[in-house]
């Protein structure tokens, strides 16, 4: 093994560490670094430096609340809430009392945002009603995570109290899902037009995805001005059609978190990773998603009783890696 960094990698990291934009080729070079090599550790150090210089000590917890479970007819190949997965055979909408209790608990535990996720056929009117009600009950910023929307719907979300919208052009969009990438991008532009923050993650990453596919989505997040972005790996639920392909390790994910962090440069307010783990917190990530309610990664209807981590658990992980979840959010 060489003891010094190659001049080319050193130059990319020098730029990236200061928040200067990386080219596609530079990001691809970093994606191909050997996990065992010193250059990968130098990459993670650069991303960590950039985040700590830009975000201060703030560690963020944006609590995912999955509003409903259904055998979703959209049948995205990586999702456990699909008709074809067969894990859920009935539609279940969590009662408003449960959603309010989760939101109040999130607020009490210091969540920085509540990300309300609905499946493919969930009523938009209901999403608005839930937003209005939560707005009266908690002061934590509300983020919606739902289907593609138009301008009128974007205005309605704002009026109902939402400040942001989670949306992603997923890996395999249009082949693993029935949605067109162009339509997803149109929604992202609607968000900017109406004044909702667009929040994003490059997801769901699996071992079969090429470095180029992944980097192109990182660049999309920068170009379309995400408030935050990051990396989420695909979780193969039992019986997932993706099971034979396996999953990427947290270690590989941390390398991608670092590349993504340098690609986003000084354009973002935070950098996310999912599911919560420590290593990425020294590779540029400072934002976790604690989870309750439905999750496309779980076979349990309430992931709070399954894979989901609580706000308190995520806050403890952030503290162990010397991020402070008690400071005010940088995001909204
Ligand atoms: S990802 Fe969303 S739209 Fe696709 S199957 Fe799952 S719930 Fe339905």
Structural commentary:
There is one protein chain. The chain has helices at 7-17, 24-31, 38-55, 96-108, 124-137, 151-160, 181-194, 211-223, 250-264, 311-320, and strands spanning 60-66, 68-69, 92-93, 113-117, 142-145, 162-166, 197-199, 202-205, 228-233, 270-274, 287-288, 291-293. The chain starts with 6 loop residues before the first helix and ends in a 12-residue tail after the last helix. The model has no long low-confidence stretch (mean pLDDT 97). The chain has one domain: TIM Barrel (Alpha-Beta Barrel), CATH 3.20.20. Helix 1 (7-17) runs parallel beside helix 3 (38-55) and helix 2 crosses helix 8. Helix content is 38%, strand content 14%. It is α/β, with parallel strands linked by helices. The strands form 3 sheets. Strands 1, 4, 5, 6, 7, 11 and 12 form a 7-stranded parallel sheet that branches. It has a 3-stranded parallel sheet with strand order 8-9-10, with helices on one face. The protein has a two-stranded antiparallel sheet with strand order 2-3. Bound molecules: iron/sulfur cluster. Residues 72, 74-76, 79, 81-82, 119-120, 177, 296 line the site of iron/sulfur cluster (SF4). The site of iron/sulfur cluster has 11 residues, from loops.
């Amino acid at each position: 093994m060489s003891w010094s960094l190659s001049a080319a990698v050193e130059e990319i990291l020098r730029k990236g560490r200061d928040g200067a934009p990386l080219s596609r080729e530079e990001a691809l070079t970093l994606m191909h670094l050997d996990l065992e090599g010193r250059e990968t550790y130098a990459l993670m150090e650069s991303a960590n430096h950039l985040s700590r210089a830009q975000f201060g000590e703030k560690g963020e917890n944006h609590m995912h609340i999955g509003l409903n479970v259904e055998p979703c007819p959209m049948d995205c190949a990586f999702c456990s809430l699909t008709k074809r997965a067969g894990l859920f055979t009935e539609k279940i909408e969590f009662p408003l009392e449960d959603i309010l209790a989760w939101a109040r608990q999130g607020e009490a535990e210091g969540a920085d945002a509540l990300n309300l996720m609905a499946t493919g056929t969930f009523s938009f009117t209901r999403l608005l009603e839930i937003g209005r009600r939560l707005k009266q009950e908690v002061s934590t910023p509300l983020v919606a995570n739902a289907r593609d929307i138009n301008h009128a719907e974007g205005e309605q979300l704002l009026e109902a109290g939402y400040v942001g919208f989670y949306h992603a052009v997923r890996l395999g969009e249009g082949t693993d899902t029935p949605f067109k990438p162009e339509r997803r991008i149109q929604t992202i532009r609607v968000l900017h037009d109406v004044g909702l923050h667009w929040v994003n993650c490059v997801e769901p990453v699996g071992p079969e995805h090429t470095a180029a596919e992944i980097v192109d989505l990182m660049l999309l997040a920068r170009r379309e001005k995400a408030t935050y972005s990051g990396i989420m790996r695909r979780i193969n639920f039992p019986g997932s059609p993706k099971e034979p392909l396996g999953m990427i390790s947290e270690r590989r994910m941390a390398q991608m978190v670092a590349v993504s962090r340098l690609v986003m440069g000084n354009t973002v307010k935070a950098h996310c990773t999912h599911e919560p783990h420590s290593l990425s917190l020294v590779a540029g990530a400072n934002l976790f998603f604690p989870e309750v309610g439905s999750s496309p990664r779980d076979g349990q209807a309430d992931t709070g009783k399954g894979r989901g981590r609580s706000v308190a658990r995520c806050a403890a992980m952030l503290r162990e890696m010397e991020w402070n979840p008690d400071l005010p959010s940088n995001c909204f």
